[in-house]
Structures are given as structure tokens and as C-alpha cells.
Amino acid sequence: MIDKTRYFIYILIITSTMIQPNSARAQLQDKQFGIFENHSDIGEVKLPGSASYNPLNQTYTLEGSGKNIWFGTDEFQYLWKKIKGDFIVTAQVQFIGKGVEAHRKIGWMVRQSLAPDSPQISAMIHGDGLTSLQFRHKAGADMEEKQLSIKGPDVVQLVRKGNTYRMSVAHWGETFVSEEVIDSTLGSEAYVGLFICAHNPDVLEKAVFSNVRIEIPAGPDLVPYTDYLGSNLETMDVATGLRKILYQVPYSIQAPNWTPDGKTLIYNSKGLLYNFDLATAHPSVLNTGFATNNNNDHVLSFDGKLMGISHHSADDKNQSVVYYLPVQGGEPTRVTLNSPSYLHGWSPDKKFLIFTGGRNNEYDIYKIAVKGGKEIQLTTTKGLDDGSEYSPDGKFIYFNSTRSGNMQIWRMKPDGSRQEQVTFDTLNNWFPHISPDGKFLVFITFQNDVKPDDHPFYKQVYLRMMPVAGGETKVIAYLYGGQGTINVPSWSPDSKKIAFVSNSDFK
User: Fold this and answer.
1) Partner residues linked to 480 by β-bridges
2) What is the dihedral of CA 47, 53, 58, 60, to 10 degrees?
3) Residue 225 lies in a domain
4) Percentage of the chain modeled with pLDDT above 70
């Protein structure tokens, strides 16, 4: 479970000292503001505000005053960046302290300029829990708003697509509730950032913003599997929800998994596999011999000594074939004779591999001995069965299936018997991964703009977690990703963290 109280105590303890501006105008602090360019007090505030970034935990702290953000002019503290075109901005937000005014405000804001009367759109949370999408279409006009039914959310997202702005909010662990404003023109380039307003000129209010992401989505001309966006290699503490970007590149990296010693992440990129040293934050190529056209289905054995891969062999019409090799690298040994075969898991005793096989125009889950031989079909129901993984105790194989309509998580005995549904909702759930201690299940969830049998790149997705023994499913990450985000087992060996990839256009 996510302990929000413990999370924010943790954030406060390690948040850095505030950086005070020299005036009410923006003061450039080179590299002091993380992903943002600058900060400003907007309007004639009585008490200067401040902004700081803590690179240790990648959180932001804002302190600000100001009368209001409602009538023809605004007063508040603003941490901003100029952005052209479409974007997705997301953050977890939290006021610090009880506060003075019920209508103190925090959230995301998009402005045409830094003038106090500028046209703007704000995804806004008030101190009393009021949540609204507020907007000023013309300079100097009073604000308008669309109130949302949810009260006091702590996850706030604002998406621009053309001239449409969508605000999405949630209580941490829940799915989004949304509202839109259409035909709002703020210009192709706008100021985008976090804000705080005290709603009282004589008061300074403070807030912490964590898991702050500015993501530039794929454009309409992007060709899937030909064109790629940039990638963030991330880890997350599943108890607190705190995410950290470890490595950022302007090309595609996919599917990180943790080595059992906790020192390395292994990911794939451009057909090769890489070791990412967590101590040095340095990647190096992992030798896979002739296998240089690997997809993102690489899986380590439970003891970490062997690694299975799916390599697209020219001798098999460039279709995926399952191999294994020593985890330190070497020449692969072929396992599956038939193709396409997409590896997904090892049995805990290292005797079997499980994979998704395309046979007779159907995709089902198969088991095969590591030494090769006859493949054993485990699922036969019509529809796509994929993403298979053994539980650490070897008692079950978890997988995802479209047999009930949407893609849902299922499980079965290792011989294919007693197949039973695990998740029941209207979304599409893929790639179940069981924590090493066997207590929790993490999976990626696509929303209903994606077909149940598809798991494409570059979509707004959730990472969700549920107890293996049954219970409430919680969202633990709100991100832009999809294919390659969490295709492989990605738990840390102590069951406290997961690794994954999110995406953005960094060009």
C-alpha cells in the first residue's frame, strides 16, 4: 500500500533549502530549477516568493503570496518553462501546513505571457479541496471555470493537444477524473509551470511538488516501430510512490530488469542489451554473441545466472526465436525450433521457459524445457494470451488474456490447469510481474483508446499494483509510455522498488 503520510514526511525531511530571488522578477539560477527554466512572482505581490529544486529526490518546493488568481489580474509565484506545441504535464502536489485561507491554490498553469493579466489556463486545487479547470480567454478578463466532482486530489495533470486542454486529477492510487476546455488559443509557444497563490497578500504559503514530469508526446506523423521518442530510465519506491529518473536519452530504450544482486539494470536498445550500473549510472553493452536483433523480452533466471532472450533470426524469416546465455554474456543457445516465439519467463528451478507462440493464427502460452524438445501448449482459448510469468514459489503462472473481452490478468497452474481471472475492470491490463517476496503484483494498464490485444508505444498509461492474495488495485504511477515500459520482470530483489521506462520527445 502507498503510505501518503510517510511519503510527504520523507519529502519534507530531505527537501533542500529554499533559494530566495533577489527581486519580484525572474532570477535566472543556472540549472537550479530542474526541468524548468526560471521562476517569477507574477503581479505586484507584497511578499516575494521563492522556488527550489532538490536533485536528490527530484522534488520542487514553492513558496508564494498573492491576492488571488480569479479577476482580471493575477498575483502568485510561478516556476515555468516555455514549451511549443502539445505537452503532458503531471505532478503530485501537497500543501505544507494548515494554511490561512481556504482558497489558497496550487497546480499547473499555462500562460500566454508573464504579464499579470495574461490569458491562461490552470489546473487548480484549492486549500479546501475545491478542484477546477480555470481559464481566461482574453487579457484582463475575469476567470471562468469548470469544477470537477473530486475533492482534494493530490495528482494533477494538464494536457494540451492543439487548442484543447484537458485537466485530469486523482487521489493517489486512483484513476483519473477529467475535464476539458476546447478552442483556447494561447499561442504555439506558451509558459508552462507550477504555481502557488496564498489568496492573501500578507501570507506566504508553501507546497511540495513531486514526480514532476513534462512530457512531449508523439506527433501525428510518427510511424510506430520506425520512429521513436526519447526515454527516461526510472525507478520507483512502491511504498511511497516516489519516482527518480536515473538516465535520459533521446532514443528508445526499453524493458529494464534488475539483477538479483541489486547492482545492475539490464535493458534493450536498437537490438542490443545493455548493463546499466546503478552505482555509476553508466551503461555498457552486454555481449549476446550473434544475437544482435533482440526485442524487449529478455528475462533473468530466478538465481540470476542465466538470461533468456528473444532474437529475431534471419534464418527464421526475421521472426522471434527464444535463446538463453550466461547473464555475464556469451554465445546464445537456441531453445525454440518454431517461430515466432516471444520469451516471457523462467520456472524457479530453471528447467523450463514459458513464451508466447504464434501458431496457426493464434497466440497462446507455451512451455518448453531449457534443453529444448517438444513445446507444451498451456492455453487454448480463442484470443490473445501473452505476458506469462511464474510466481516465485512456482505454484502459478500469471498471464494476460483477452478472453473476457478487455485484456485482463489471469493465472493458472504450471501444467495449464485451473485458469482463473485475477483482475476485473474496464481497462486493459498487461504484463503481470510478481514481487520476489511473492506479495504483490505490478502491471501496466492501457486505457480504452487502445485495442485490448494491442500494447503500443506512446500512450498515457498507469502502472498498477495489487496484493497477490487479493485486494484493492492501486495506481502507483501516471506516465506516458506503453510498449517497452515494463515488459519484463522489473522488481528490485528486496521487493521495494520497480524499474521502468517513460517517454518524451527530447528533440
Assistant:
1) 460
2) 10
3) no
4) 94
